[in-house]
Amino acid sequence: xxxxxxxxxxxxxxxxxxxxxxxxxxxxxxxxxxxxxxxxxxxxxxxxxxxxxxxxxxxxxxxxxxxxxxxxxxxxxxxxxxxxxxxxxxxxxxxxxxxxxxxxxxxxxxxxxxxxxxxxxxxxxxxxxxxxxxxxxxxxxxxxxxxxxxxxxxxxxxxxxxxxxxxxxxxxxxxxxxxxxxxxxxxxxxxxxxxxxxxxxxxxxxxxxxxxxxxxxxxxxxxxxxxxxxxxxxxxxxxxxxxxxxxxxxxxxxxxxxxxxxxxxxxxxx
Length: 270
Description:
Belongs to the ABC transporter superfamily. Its main location: membrane. By secondary structure, this protein is α/β, with parallel strands linked by helices. It is 39% helix and 23% strand. The chain contains eleven helices and ten strands. The chain has helices at 44-51, 72-77, 98-109, 113-126, 142-155, 172-187, 199-203, 222-227, 231-235, 241-251, 263-269; strands at residues 2-13, 16-28, 33-37, 59-64, 67-68, 82-85, 160-164, 191-195, 208-212, 215-220. Strands 6-7-8-3-9-10 form a six-stranded mixed beta sheet, with helices on both faces. β7 (160-164), α6 and β8 form a beta-alpha-beta unit. α3 packs across α4 and α4 crosses α5 (142-155). The longest helix is centred in the middle third of the chain and has 16 residues, at 172-187. The chain starts with a strand and ends with a helix.
């Protein structure tokens, strides 16, 4: 789905260029769930915006959904395959109602009215907003607006959805619903790139990529990351309670493969 080879990127600040990405190489296969993390300013958002054609690397090669993103035509076309859900729920809604918001992208595709209506109602039902299809969009909660953003991605039949810290401005209930929705889409075959700074969300991801100062420091499984890489300590992370208990077990000689990552795994261990 994504193949990046040695890509670099920088911003211009007056006469200077400030490096943002430095030699990033990563491959994401169709149907994968990958969690991407790193401190603010490490380059996460710059990287994922390249993946759906919002910007281009200064050097290196980048292919998304089989398209070479050095081409302006391909950067436009890739948005049919890869969609972004942004951090701020209010920054991505266009219509005055959920129905109109989903309709906007479909109208740009030129869908017939009957087909468009059926598609809108289907995706609103899928994200749990069918009963609010005609509500004023400003009356929706932050979590509902994020689910509406996901509905817009689904209506466009995105093969990959990038959640760029999409739960960071939500309460625990809202975060839980967005995570559950993303996992259901993943089980149905959608490729998910989950950008987060929450260690507990990393621990529940099958694959984790860690960025620091524009470089990729780690790309692998979460158990190795938390228990044997030494990177969380180096970066000053506060480990989740489950990991703290797991490290106590590790100090008592428990093998890596049995150390818990989730509450369910901890329950099984105990």
